[in-house]
Every structure is written in structure tokens, then in C-alpha cells.
Design brief:
Length: about 230
């Protein structure tokens, strides 16, 4: 009996993720991915016409997973809602999986509109935090540029000196918070901003999943976890 479309798509992506990590992007072949997934090569191309598109889908879903983890930790209080702490998590994610660097740092080669991610959700989250008094009054583009400088510099140093990772992450977090966070922000401000920030993250996850497997009925399967129901629903 043929596997349901959703299961088959999920299986191909899981096989691709494993194969890319095993052999690297350059050495991985679609034949190897198809064999690992237990489908024909033509079935893989039915969903993703090129290996590059398949690779991009895998990475988009990994970034969606990072966002889901962040949203869950913000929701439970495991992570504080500060610019430094959020960026620290993204730097660590890239250092642990270098293949994510182009996506997390905003260089989506071959994407329909590279400006859409991560710039759009990042702009939205900063705007929300500013509106609730968590971030200093400054141009959003200036703040994003500051994030990029710190992230790219930290990632570069982390790759060359992995033994310095923890002090590097601590320094990046302190630098961003001292530069952009408002010292007079309190718990009430965080509580007011949090639902909107979470909504921005969930919307970004939906867009990443949709872009990973366009025109296929796979969103419910590929999403990192079920989107929490809004308190207003």
C-alpha cells in the first residue's frame, strides 16, 4: 500500500536531512536520498525539482524548528525576552550547525525574496518590543544592522575558536542588551509584549514550512509542533 502523501513527504525530508549531514551538501545525491527514504528518484523530483531546492527545504524546516524552540522557551519562561538572549540562541544554533548560517544570517540563496526572512519577522519582533518599552528608540534598520554585526562576528570567532564559545556568547548577549535594551523595562512590559512576539514567531514558522514544500498538503506534518491556540480564540 502506498504511503500517504504527507508521510512520504516527511520521509523524504528526514532522509535528506540525514544524508546531507552524513555526506555534505556537495556529495549528497538525490539517488542516495531516495534510497534512504525508500522511494524512487522521480518521487523526490516530484516534490523538489532540484537538489538545491530540497536542500533549501531541509534548512528552512530546521530554522522553523529553532523558532519553535524559542517560542516554546519564551512561553514557559525558560528564556527571557531580551534582544541579547534571543540573538545568543541564534548564534549558538549556527555554531552547532554551520549549514544554518545562510538562513539564520539572512542570505537565502535562490529564495524568491531574500528580504522576507529573517528580516521581516526580525523587524516585526523589534517593532513589538519597542512599542512595549523593551528596546531603545532607534531606527529598526540600525538595530538589525547591529544584530548582524554581532552575529556574524560571533559566528566567525566561534568557528575559529570553539573553546571560547561560552565567553563569546556571554559577551554578545551583554553587548546587545547594554546597547539596545531599555534598563527601565519591567516584567509587566515583557508580559504585554510576549503574546505579540510569539505570534510573530508562529507566523514566521508557518511561512518557512509553506516555502519548504509549496503546493503540497504537508503543513500539518512538517510544522515543528502544533501551533498553540491563541488566548483570544
Amino acid at each position: 500500500m502506498a504511503r500517504p502523501v504527507q508521510d512520504r513527504t516527511e520521509g523524504i525530508l528526514a532522509a535528506a536531512r540525514a544524508q546531507f549531514r552524513l555526506d555534505g551538501a556537495e556529495q549528497t545525491t538525490v539517488d542516495a536520498v531516495a534510497a534512504r527514504a525508500g522511494v524512487g528518484k522521480g518521487t523526490v523530483f516530484l516534490y523538489w525539482p532540484t537538489k538545491a531546492r530540497l536542500r533549501d527545504a531541509v534548512l528552512r524546516l530546521e530554522v522553523a524548528g529553532l523558532m519553535a524552540d524559542l517560542a516554546d522557551d519564551l512561553r514557559t519562561g525558560a528564556t527571557r525576552l531580551t534582544v541579547g538572549r534571543v540573538v545568543r540562541r541564534e548564534i549558538l544554533a549556527v555554531l552547532e550547525n554551520p549549514d544554518l548560517a545562510p538562513h539564520v544570517l539572512g542570505v537565502l540563496d535562490g529564495a524568491p525574496d531574500p528580504a522576507e526572512f529573517p528580516g521581516d519577522p526580525l523587524h516585526r519582533i523589534i517593532t513589538i518590543m519597542q512599542a512595549h518599552g523593551l528596546v531603545r528608540d532607534a531606527a529598526i534598520n540600525e538595530i538589525v544592522a547591529g544584530f548582524e554585526i554581532v552575529m556574524k562576528g560571533s559566528v566567525g570567532l566561534g568557528f575559529t575558536s570553539p573553546d571560547r564559545m561560552e565567553p563569546l556568547l556571554d559577551a554578545a548577549e551583554r553587548l546587545l542588551d547594554s546597547t539596545y535594551s531599555r534598563p527601565d523595562a519591567g516584567p509587566a512590559d515583557v508580559a504585554a509584549a510576549l503574546p505579540e512576539v510569539l505570534d510573530a514567531l508562529e507566523d514566521a514558522i508557518d511561512r518557512l514550512v509553506e516555502a519548504a514544500a509549496p503546493d503540497r498538503p504537508t503543513t500539518a506534518v512538517l510544522r515543528p509542533r502544533e501551533r498553540p491556540v491563541s488566548a483570544e480564540a
